[in-house]
Design a protein that fits this description.
By secondary structure, the chain is of the alpha/beta class. It has a single domain (about 15-294), classed as Rossmann fold (3-Layer(aba) Sandwich), CATH 3.40.50.12370. About 40% of the residues lie in helices and about 20% in strands. It contains 10 helices and 10 strands. The longest helix is centred in the N-terminal third of the chain and has 22 residues, at about 70-90.
């Protein structure tokens, strides 16, 4: 099977942007805005808040109950006060023509984000990541990691220090040569066609086996009619250095991969053998759920 990807400009309609109004979220909002502009999509911003759980208390003092009942109003007023900052960013970026709908929902962040992604028929979730050191920190235990694993649409996780110049010139796509990887790469090329990036398909060979190069050659043949795409097998013993050096050398703007529940990372990069796993802290991660490729 050979994939030929026609430029697609209507594949992306809605970008969901969850925000806690942190600096990381602010940087991610710039990504969301510029991608929406290039891909002709609208943005739905989402802020989730939780009320304290009082069900386990045998007695609730009247004052506490009164405070509890005013939380919705407080959250709404706080949310209303934060919105001008997003509007200012949109103005500063010269992107007021991008349609943005701001929403506020009660509930745990992970639950609300996943539910609203389905309700809004989101084609992409863009979110910022804070407090995580490298990809290991993002994937293990954070809200971003939970969203990456469980979302039914692609997710772009933007590190706190990432800076977007409005261009996506180089995209790295990781593969273990599975059938869904071919589908995902075809989808990715169609999705980002309006940005015309160069694609770098990469596999990390920690086993030092010649078969990995042969498997990459077979994988590459699937895309022989495509331009601006290259294929790489990285051979070595230190996964962290191999991947980081590759991202820096190729000036990669986004790392993309197929994801599936908790075991996807262990399978993809042999995590049990690479305990010090990290990644270039300035590079956003784009996850493509395996389930959407069936």
């Amino acid at each position: 099977m050979v994939f030929f990807v026609e430029p697609v400009t209507t594949i992306m309609k809605t970008i969901l942007f969850p925000t806690d109004f942190s600096d990381a979220a602010t940087r991610a909002f710039i990504y969301a805005l510029k991608l929406a502009d290039k891909l002709d999509a609208q943005i739905v911003t989402l802020h989730a808040f939780e009320k304290p759980d009082l069900r386990s208390l045998s007695y609730i003092p009247p004052v506490a109950e009164e405070v509890y009942n005013t939380i919705d109003l407080y959250q709404f007023e706080n949310y209303r006060d934060e919105l001008p900052a997003l509007v200012n960013i949109q103005q500063e970026q010269g992107l007021m023509h991008v349609k943005v709908n701001h929403t506020l929902y009660e509930g745990p962040a992970k639950k609300v984000i996943l539910e609203r992604a389905v309700a809004e028929a989101a084609d992409l979730i863009v979110l910022g990541t804070t407090g995580a050191h490298g990809l290991k920190g993002i994937l293990l235990g954070s809200v971003a990691g939970e969203i990456l694993e469980n979302a039914t649409c692609p997710v772009l996780a933007v590190p706190e220090q990432a800076v977007f110049d409005g261009k996506i010139d180089h995209v790295a796509f990781t593969t273990t040569f599975r059938e869904e990887d071919s589908k995902a790469l075809g989808f990715l090329m169609a999705l980002l066609a309006p940005l015309r990036p160069a694609f770098h398909c990469v596999n990390v060979d920690l086993a030092h086996t010649e078969s990995y190069n042969h498997r990459m050659d077979k994988f590459a043949a699937t895309f022989e009619q495509q331009d601006k795409i290259s294929f790489h097998v990285l051979d070595g013993t230190d996964f962290q250095s191999l991947l980081t050096d590759f991202l820096v050398e190729m000036e990669v703007d986004i790392v993309a991969m197929v994801t599936e529940k908790r075991n996807f990372w262990q399978e993809l990069f042999h995590y049990s053998k690479t305990k010090s796993l990290s990644y270039h802290s300035l590079t956003p991660i784009l996850s493509i759920p395996k389930g959407m490729l069936a």
